[in-house]
Amino acid sequence: MIIRFIEAPAHNIRNGNVVTSERWRRFFEELGHGVTSSPSANDEPCDILVAFNASKNRQAILEARNGGIAGHIVICLTGTDLYVDLKNDPSALDVLYLADQLAVLQPMALHELPPGLLHKAMVIFQSANPPRIDVTKDPEHFDVLVIAHLRDVKDPLRAAKASRLLPPESKIRVFLAGAALTEEFAHEAEREVEENPRFHWLGELDKAGTAEALLRSRIMVISSLHEGGANVISEAVVSNIPVIGSDIPCTRGLLGDEYPGLFPAKDSARLAELLFRAETDNDYYDELAARCRQEAYKFQPELEKNSLELLLDRVGAGPRACPVDGRLQGSAPT
């Protein structure tokens, strides 16, 4: 089959949607399908159109359905879809009803969908491979990593703010890997570096640099206000780096309701308490590590690949007309 991705603009950065689409492309190609990408539906026919982000790609999805460009439509719902745009503008839900299949990236996201859409929704966990590099952790420090581009929804400086509340004897250092998406955030991060000796801003790193920074760390912090899924959690867990995260549906969906490393979003004091506890209480640190290992099965590449194969099977279950080369297409690869 011919599968076309529609991706919302990434502003020349590697954000979560870009990382997810790259991985899905690889898996679809391994399954024998051709994959192309476009910022719009355009006039080229395809068997399946996959949109990453329903609200930002609403017009393209409407055009694809109305113009008969795609045989089937799949929408991968993002955090912006689930927790902002579709809540603030329920009328935008119309494109979800046009889709043949919806994908969410963690099970708690299903609670955000109208009951009438649940029959066409499935959970696809985002996978990751552990880095194949040897890195030595600094024995003199307890390094904490945040992987997030600097924008409001990520609350990227929360760990830096929490580190200001740590007792003087703490050996914690906070590193932030991510690009500033506004001048305001750039100035704020630079000011934090100047004023906070525990904080270090690494800027945007490539994949290898991010993996190295992760393996040098003792803890990975995700402080987002909401997430549709979280590649960084997958990457940390398979790298055996425990996670401390904001108590949001995504974190609970990926690590479990009773995960002991959750703090209320925006709560610097509680985050500082958990970080210091992880640094000083070996039993607590080991509990975080064990709980992450317990959830690691979700993030295996073979599971994600199998889920995508099932997605295609579900989409292809009905013989809707697929305009590629003028014939009806089944789910068999070409």
Task: Please explain how this structure is put together.
- With 334 residues, the protein is an alpha/beta fold.
- It has 2 domains: 2-126 and 300-326, 3-Layer(aba) Sandwich (Rossmann fold); 142-298, Rossmann fold (3-Layer(aba) Sandwich), CATH 3.40.50.2000.
- It has helices spanning 16-30, 58-66, 79-88, 94-98, 158-163, 183-195, 207-215, 231-238, 249-255, 268-280, 282-295, 301-315, and strands at residues 2-7, 34-38, 46-52, 70-76, 101-104, 121-123, 142-147, 172-177, 199-203, 219-222, 243-246, 262-263.
- The strands form 2 sheets. Strands 2-1-3-4-5-6 form a 6-stranded parallel β-sheet, with helices on both faces. Strands 9-8-7-10-11-12 form a 6-stranded parallel β-sheet, sandwiched between helices.
- Helix 6 links the parallel strand 8 and strand 9 (199-203).
- Helix 10 crosses helix 11.
- The longest helix has 15 residues, at 16-30.
